[in-house]
Each structure stands twice: as structure tokens, then as C-alpha cells.
Amino acid sequence: FSAPFFWLKVLCFSPARSFWRVSVFNPQAWVRLARKLRLLHWRRAKKKVQKSSLFEKTPKNFRIGGDIRPTTDLTRFVKWPKYVRLQRMKKIMLTRLKVPPALNQFNTAIDKNQAASLLKLLKKYVPETKDEKKKRLLETAQQKKDGQEVKSKKPIVIKYGLNHVTTLIEQKAAKLVVIAHDVDPIELVCWMPALCRKKEVAYCIIKGKSRLGQLVHKKTASCIALTTVRQEDKPDLDKLANNFMAQFNDNAELRRRWGGGIMGLKSQHVMARRERAIQLEQAKKMGLGFA
What we know:
Layout lengths: L1 H12 L13 H21 L34 H15 L1 E2 L1 H4 L7 H11 L7 H16 L13 E2 L1 H9 L5 E5 L11 H8 L2 E5 L2 H7 L7 E4 L7 H16 L9 E2 L4 H26 L1
Parallel strand pairs: 3-4
Antiparallel strand pairs: 1-6, 2-5, 3-5
Helix pairs in contact: 1-2
């Protein structure tokens, strides 16, 4: 629709064209003009390059009702739940503040290989479930009733529960104590390493109270203890106990080392700048003194 009007303008204002000779009362002149316009429009359309359909542009329109926008990472703009924000703030606070040795020792846990060998041993002594215990007691009662010799004995299992483990340590009945590093509040177990050292009971700190909880059919467990093991597992227990005795019980540096006190990047830069200024001032004074 717009193309003929374009050529009409060209004809109107171009001096080469004799548009003004077209009379209102001469219909044939108007027909000739229309033909010329059609011919010019057809020639212009013909000059357009025919593009291959294989490489035809298909731009996306992301306006309302258009194409779906690509997914973007909006992590930075998410308002995290309060518990997430609190645990992040707590982590930063513990990094900034100075942490006394009694609490800092829980940041030094056993490594992955040690944890694997320890858990492999502990899984052999998982406590009975309620159903298993009920079944064993019923069998024992039936054997006693029938006057037979009682064959089912109480199994050797992991001991758990804070009070129970404390009693075992005090009685020196525990051979190995495993304490979780993330007990909350930490005051529940911060005294336990000192008690283990006093009673000469081997202990270690492992990452994850939930890992200990899985061993005893609970969500979490603050600490567990082994009192005895079967004959075939004694070498493994002795080896672990000796390693942990050297790593934790006899490690004097562990109970003297403070933690925390690590400032943020901006604060570190400020302190470094201040230190440089003090050194420059001292250098100037020294220079003046020598002069």
C-alpha cells in the first residue's frame, strides 16, 4: 500500500517526470500513470535478494505474551530462610571472634580415611532395633520356660547417650569415645575431651552428629563409645585407639591453640595500610635521628 505512494511522490517532485501534464479531465493519462507506478513497484520488488530459508533469522521476542525468557541464576537476589541467614551469620561471627582452645579443638576433626575405617568398625556393633530386641527376649523367655539352656546372649553394641557415655568414661570402661564436632549447644560436650585425657580413654572428634545418629537409629547423637569388641576386631580397635591417643589425647598443641580472629578482606586491607603508615613514620624518625 505504501510503495505506490512512494513512487507517486517521486513522480510528483522529480523534474524529469511530467506529472503536472496529467489533467484531471484526462482519464487515460491517469491509467498510464498507474501502469508506470505498478511497473516501477514491480521492478523494485524484483531487485530484492531472495534469502535462503535454511538461514532465515528468527529473532525472539521477550515482551509480554512473547517467548519464554531463558533461566537465569537468581541466587544473589533470593531472600533466604531465617535459619540459613542465622547459620551463615554464626559462621562469620565465629571466624571473626577469638575462640578459646576448649571450643576451638572441635574444629580439628579426623580426616576422611580415618572416618571411613572408624565407621566401618562401628557399623559391626549397631544396637538392636526394638523389634529385634523384643524377638530376642521372647526367645530367651521361651527357652527358660522350656527348661532349656539359654543360647541367645546380649549382643556387643555401641553405647550412646551423654550420661551413659560419661559414666563409662569415669569408670574407665570405655575403650574408644567418638564425639561429634557440631553439637549444639557445644557446652554439652566441651568438657568431655578433658575428662577422657584425665581418665586416659582414647577419644576422637568426627564431623557430623547425624552420622553418629544413624549408627544408633536416631536423628543425631552427640557422642558414642565402644566398651568391648569381638576377638577378630580387637587389632582394628587397638590400632585406632593408639592413633587417636597420639592425635588427640597426647597432643598438647591442640588444647593450647586459639581459633578465630580472622578479619574480613576490607578490614585486612585497612590494617595493612595502617601498618605501612606506622612503618613509614618510624623510618622517617630513624632518618631524622641519624641526620
